[in-house]
Amino acid sequence: MIGFRSPIFVVLFAPLALAGCSPSLHDTIGRGDIESVRAMLAEDPGRVSDTNALGKQPLQYAVMYAQREAMEALVEAGADLNARDNTGMTALHVAAMYGRKGPIRWLVSRGADALAVDDFGDRPSHLAAIYGQADAVALLHESGDDLRGRNENGMTPLDLAIKHRRTEAADRIRALIGEAGDSP
């Protein structure tokens, strides 16, 4: 049996205890532990712009998990609404991809760029169309995206919705831009 005083424990596990490994702000947000999020930001406000291996900042995780209080705490601490990850996605791209209507409204009302383009030339509306997030497409349209922008492959959100067989999103886009036709 391996106990705390066992040589195996000391060799294998004691270094981990001494490494000072603390949970990331990203993980803490994912757990929904807002008190710990606030404490971590109070201790080190610079953590607001920590990036993980994907280049994602804590705000992008708060949006992904629809953690409104964490979003507010992060922005109060100075989070950049338009910070980009390793592929150029912003928090608004993440919100659009996941169809997070509340975070989309919240981000746009605070100045997030609805026309931000990622490394593939996709706006948040392109991702909403790819993932079939019809309501997100409509919110982004209300926020100033005319839904006619083309990505680096020359595709509009409507083209992408059709390509990915997102019938509801394609129909919504057609209604928003006034284009006739039925989804395939």
How helix-rich are the residues, as a percent range? 40-55%
The class by helix and strand makeup works out as mainly alpha
Question: Which band does the percent of strand residues land in?
Answer: under 5%
Annotation field: number of helices: 12
> How far do the termini sit from each other?
64 Å
What are the low-pLDDT stretches, counting only 5+ consecutive residues below 50?
1-19
How many E strands? 0
- Rounded to an integer in angstroms, the radius of gyration calculated over CA atoms is 21 Å
Average pLDDT reading? 89
Shape: elongated
Element-level helix/strand string: HHHHHHHHHHHH
Structural features, described:
This protein is an all-alpha fold and 184 residues long. The chain is 51% helix and 0% strand. The N and C termini lie far apart (64 Å). The model is unreliable at 1-19 (pLDDT under 50).
